[in-house]
Amino acid sequence: MLYIIMVVVLQALITLTLLISLIKNRESVLNMLLLYIGVVALDMGYEYFIIQRSGYESVLYEIPGSLRVFKGLIFLYITTYLIHAKWRDKLKYLIAPLTLVVVHHAIATSAKMLDLPWADLAITSYKSYFVYYSYYWIACLVLCIYLLTKYRKKITHPVAGNFRYLVYYVLTGVLLFWAVYQLGWDTLVYQKIYSLLFLFQFGWILYVYILTYQHKLQNTSSFSIPKETYQYKDLSKIDFEAVQNAITSFYKESHDYLDEEFTLDQLSSHLKISKADLSITFNKHLHSNFHEYTNRSRIQHFKQILQEDPSASVTDLAFQCGFKSKSTFYKYFKKEFHCLPSQLVH
Predict the structure, then answer these.
(1) Measured CA distances, 307 to 173, 251, 328, 346 (Å)
(2) Quick one: pLDDT at residue 103?
(3) Which of 33, 168, 229, 246 is the most buried (most CB within 10 A)?
(4) What is the pTM for the complete model shown?
(5) What DSSP letter does each residue of 101-167 carry, written as one string?
(6) What is the pLDDT of residues 295-305, one digit of tens each?
(7) Residue 22 pLDDT greater than 60, yes or no
(8) Cα(126)–Cα(104) distance, rounded to whole angstroms?
(9) Distance from C-alpha of 338 to C-alpha of 276, rounded to nearest angstrom
(10) ∠ at Cα 57 (55, 62), nearest 5°?
(11) Range in 121-125, 140-144, 340-344 with the lowest mean pLDDT
(12) What distance separates the 2 farthest-apart alpha carbons in the chain?
């Protein structure tokens, strides 16, 4: 009995740790996918432990695990990140009520194991959340698909296309399980099949990690091209004015550079100009390089948004503008404005 209570309390603590990770790592799609794996794995591990200790599977329907409530939030964070939604920061307000579900679960389960007089009332009130859980989960998935479809033209992240298929896959599994439950079939049997379906999700996410790692290896030199690669090029054949105008127009009119994975290859593809010509123009006429010019443009975009909404979170805006870390953001911000973001709006 003590072991089960310890596991329930430990689950609550792990959940809070995951929430902290979610808050700190929202700048990376891969981090959020890894967090999703952690949530699912811990939830399934909790269920397995309860089955082994209690000896019967129906306990999962009497006292459902609480970690699963965060899956919808994680998927929404990924989706709003991919579409560069300005209201993405508002999702953080969902963290508080979802945390209360986890705390309620820990208290109710512990009371049940200790046979406290108010345990049944606590369990009943906890189970009331899960009357609506299926609708919440399905609504999150449908909203993700809608947003990814509606704003697909402005999405540049290489993961976006496959992520949409993942959401479709998860939604199909959820709807099948819901149909089995509504038809009164043996949900415990399908629960095992449903759990095995997560292996395909893990496989997909691992595949995304491998692709992303390869993509980064291929683009490690995409920030600038060494001079020796173009020192024998006939520079008189390059229309530097046209290339410079194309670059400046792109950064003024497009927001594709706000994607943290934006590369020189993508800029070259957008402008139909070779990487060599772009790099030479950056170095010789814009007195910069691709990496520095992109981050300076991100800083200017950050300034514009912050002035429109001074109450916005600086960290969230920085990640929204394409910076992978706070240190990089502050480095370029101080270099550009010689002050702190808080001083900019005063």
Answers:
(1) 44, 19, 21, 10
(2) 84
(3) 33
(4) 0.57
(5) HHHHHHHHHHHHHTT-TTHHHHHHHHHGGGGTHHHHHHHHHHHHHHHHHHTGGG---TTHHHHHHHH
(6) 999 998 988 88
(7) no
(8) 7
(9) 32
(10) 110
(11) 340-344
(12) 88
